[in-house]
Amino acid sequence: MTSDRSTSTPHSGHAVVLGAGIAGLLAARVLSESFDRVSVLDRDDLPGTGDTGDLGSGLGAGLGARRGVPQAGHLHALMDRGREILEELHPGLVTRLVAAGAPTSEALVGGRWYLQGRRVGPVSTGLTSVLASRPLLERELRRRTAALPGVRLLPRTAVIGLVGVGADESVTGVRIRAGAGDGASTVLAADLVVDASGRNSRSLDWLAAAGHPAPPTSRVTVDLGYASRIYQRRPEHLGGDLSVIISTTPGLRGGGAAAVEGDRWIVTLAGLLGEHPPTDDDGFRAFARRLPAPDIADLIGTATPLTDAVPYRFRESVRRHFEAVRRPPDGIVVIGDALCSFNPLYAQGMTVAAQQALVLRDCLSGGLRGLPGRFYRAVGPVLDVAWDMATSSDLRYPAVAGRRTLRGRVTGSYAARAQRRAHRDPAVARTLMRVVHLAEPPTALLRPALAARVLAPGAPRAITPAAPTVRDRLAVPHHEQS
User: pTM of the predicted model, to two decimals?
Assistant: First the structure.
């Protein structure tokens, strides 16, 4: 393929997106403003594309999750900033999700939030939580993406290599194989490839094998394990509240429950550093009883389970610093989890993917030549915010493996104090939640008036882990937690 990348104009050319997850679908949306054609490739079937019926009707495997998203049946959260961006890119999206049965509430008002073992008081934050399951959100985004002019979704399509990937060349397309068999491969030419294929992206290996320098990589090992189960929801559960989040820390364990479409609860239990919840009924209940608050244990003690518990394991957060690569190859941009994969306890992934889509849209206005370098430099500060918030919290615990800095230690210590102060101070609670939802920058917590409140004496201490009872020890054998 030949193309003059320096003279590309809006609404010309062909872009290819690898992966039809949240990051890939949002990338396709912004690419459709700059390219005549956008092809979104995914190895999976893509159910619901073009479907205008009841998005919440089919339970499927619990929630109708597609095979390539093993964590889709677990608890997800769309931060308020993510909701704003999705509404900007797809007006009416939230209305559609609500029509499909997804509840909404204001954070801290319609739900309960525990930090360091204590509940944060119900204070107005101005933040809207959309409690849609991940499969429902993806399905609606697929439907809207497929309806965009010039966009096509290609399910059951495997990408087996990049084209034009030599050390001094630009990427000019991908080599694909349709279906699940071993048939002949074909080349799909592209002016731009956007890799949104996730944390196990093969593009990174293909680029390295062709002589392109690998980006420096940061890792923080948390050894997180969680297990989720779906329950039937009744109006009296949780006293009418729609969610409860019990933050997870080593020794304390944690979990969450959220009301989703179809009058169901998604209940997720989690533990760090190898203390993972079991999936048998007795063990799941026993793990919930040892949380620092009784809300989730009480809920599952009265709710009817609809599925078995399903486990998932997340070993480490990974960030690839492409902004440090002097000359990243033209023709390919890496986004989403392939660029930065966050500890899912902080629920940042979908919102940061939405932020990356906006950065990509802005960078496309400068043409295709040099686009990857512009994008990585521009998206760096966006990633810094979420990465620093999550890793500074994780690295407060000595057993978590990762590079520690003085700045990170100070940030983690201050954030922990802000969390404790939030239990008693509504002003701190409101700002903290707005920072967590990426609606305000972390510097909002450093404003002089608020910092004085955070640093004032008298903040309560975190709750210490409770010793397991004999009943818990019998129900949760040690080997099931490691």
Answer: 0.88
